[in-house]
Amino acid sequence: MNKSNEVITAQDLTKVYQMGDVEVQALRGLSLKIYRGEVVAVMGPSGSGKSTLMNILGCLDRPSAGEYSLDGEPVAGMDDDQLASIRNRKIGFIFQSFNLLARTSALSNVELPLRYSGPTKAPAHPDGQPGGPSRKARARAALEAVGLGDRMLHRPTELSGGQQQRVAIARALVNEPAMIMADEPTGNLDSKVGQEIMDLLLTLNRERGTTLVIVTHDPRIAAQTQRTIQIRDGVVDEEEQESVR
Amino acid sequence: MSFLQVLIEALESLNGNKLRSGLTILGIVIGVAAVIAMLAIGQGAQDSITNTINSTGVNVLYVFAGARGNRENPTVRNVRPLTMDDAQALIDPIAAPSVKAVAPVISDNVTAAAAGQTTGTTANGVTANYAAIRNQSVTEGEFISDDQQNGHRQVAVIGPDLADTLFGRHTELVGESIRLDGQPFTIVGVLAAKGGSSFGSADNQVIVPLSTMRDRLIHRNGNNVDTIYVQAASAETTTSASDEVSAIIRARHRTAAGADDFTVFSSADLLQTASSVTGILTIFLGGVAGISLLVGGIGIMNIMLVSVAERTREIGLRKALGARKRDILTQFLAESLLLSLLGGFIGIALGWTISIIIEQFAAASGTAFSAVVSLGAILLATSFSAAIGLFFGIYPANRAASLQPVEALRYE
Predict the structure, then answer these.
(1) pTM
(2) Hey, which of A92, A94, B160, B289 has its CA 20 to 30 A from B152?
(3) What residues of A are in contact with residue B409 (Cβ under 8 Å)?
(4) Are A66 and A13 within 8 A, CB to CB?
């Protein structure tokens, strides 16, 4: 892997929270790089600044100081709408609690990021396909990729936990992002289903080359990644390079 | 997102909590229905009063003896009665070019008896042109003629209500006999029904020639009359006719301006007074209904605030997936707008139904009254409910749009 293939380049990130009169330094000059196609685990005890780092890397929050480029775009100085656009195009999120919209079908849930993508690639008439696949077609393809081709019109409440997380993964995939950020993706699942989800994520990485950043407490999950980044007291504590399986 | 998608998402969201959406819409429905019904009833009352006044004669001036008393100008003493000569003097193409016709009238209460029945009624002694000026027509027979007036004939035209009281019918009465204060009269015509008016029923009266009235029924000395009806040449000349009539009678009675011992009153004056009264009534009713619409709007705001709080995580998620502030704002505004517009449309239908029901009730109780749902009222209610949706939706929507994604996602 060479440097031009960096997805995340973070340099001297600091984040300071004002809690009443006290300033809390959540990040103290943290630097890291993640390369295209990598599978990286981020670990760290609570209070280590891990959540803050993930919020910044996920463009949900801005650093107080430092440089951060995502897929070659410097994001530190962007305004809210520009950050929203970056999140939409470059990042797929997977949450511990799935965060699906309960009232709508799996298909609509997967389609959601495409609705915020601005002008659709699909033509005005929904049946014709020239000019690129329609939103629905792309959402369908993503659901088929996670093995839920037969559950597209089910609502989240009609799906098992593992199936719900698959819908969330399809939603993260649908915009073909530069990286997927998964925050404890197996935390709400039993170990067997959790392993199935891990296998799916690793398969997607292998087949599509999607960069994966997984935040986890679970060493067994971390053991399946290529590299583990340990965060402690707002800086990178150590990096363990795993051999590629 | 496209307009259609915003609409679909808003519909989906409202559909997701049917009871709550329904109750919120109900608040607007009641408000809008009340506004529509009240405006329709007010408009209907106004039209009804206008019609009644118009039916008493178009462009008609009423001239009667005595000043219109008020505090600054106490009633003039030594009032001279109006006379036949006063009436004759008003037909003067030079001094009164705006006057088209003049009808002097003597009125008195009489006892009418026929077919074994006796009742009290009003007798009006009139000339032949009274019918045209007062907009009176007959359903059978003929009105009093000049010949009958000149010949002091004992003939009468009978009102339909009076006919019902005496004969139990108001048809086939020409040639029947009626006694007024003991004097025999022959019925020559039956008046067309006009319905009740603010001056007492025009249907309970008997009309006889003015000359006969003076000879046989009132035994009054001289040639005094009670009222002179003056018809102006057109609606536009009513005011000038009024001025001309005043000037002529003032000269004849030798009264100074401002100390008139007579009053000229026009149906236009009456119409204006009645219109302003019903106008105030309409505004008042509409205002009361408007308050309930406002309450409905506050209901929308309340529900939208609850909805924003409940869906904080959803908002956070949408923002994480790339929704901009504008997208969230649009989404919530669309929902509140949809609530208020749905309520508005249902409210218009309901208000319309209520107006029709009230119309039926009025018809059943014998009052000709049509509630008028005007296009203006519908547009007003629609735009007002849309404005309420926007106004009361802005704050909750803005609150939702301003949420930080990190905090919204963490919200439990």
Answers:
(1) 0.71
(2) B160
(3) 60, 95, 99
(4) yes
Q: Which residue of B has its CA nearest to A171?
A: B321
Q: What is the pLDDT of residues A90-106, one digit of tens each?
A: 999 999 999 998 888 99
> How long, in residues, is chain B?
412
Q: How far is B391 from chain A (nearest CA, A)?
A: 25
Q: At what angle do helices A135-145 and A161-173 cross, to 10 degrees?
A: 130
Complex ipTM value: 0.89
Q: Residue A184 is encoded by which pair of tokens?
A: 């404890």
In a domain, residue A13? The reply is no
- A172: tokens are 């993260």
What total number of domains does chain A contain? 1
pLDDT for B363 beyond 60: yes
Write out the two tokens for B335. Answer: 């929902």
Question: A115-164: per-residue pLDDT in tens?
Answer: 888 665 544 444 544 456 788 899 999 999 999 999 999 999 999 999 99
- Mean predicted confidence (pLDDT) in B335-340: 92
Domain holding B389, by residue range, is: 3-53+272-410
What is the domain range of residue A172? 37-62+78-241
Backbone angles phi, psi at A68, to 5 degrees: -145, 120
Alpha helix locations (H) across B128-253? Answer: 130-133, 146-150, 160-167, 210-212, 238-253
Put simply, the answer to whether B16 touches A103 (Cβ < 8 Å) is: yes
**Are A58 and B317 in contact (CB < 8 Å)?**
no
> C-alpha angle B34/B35/B40, rounded to 5°?
100
**Encoding tokens for residue B87?**
């009436």
Tokens of B360: 């039926």
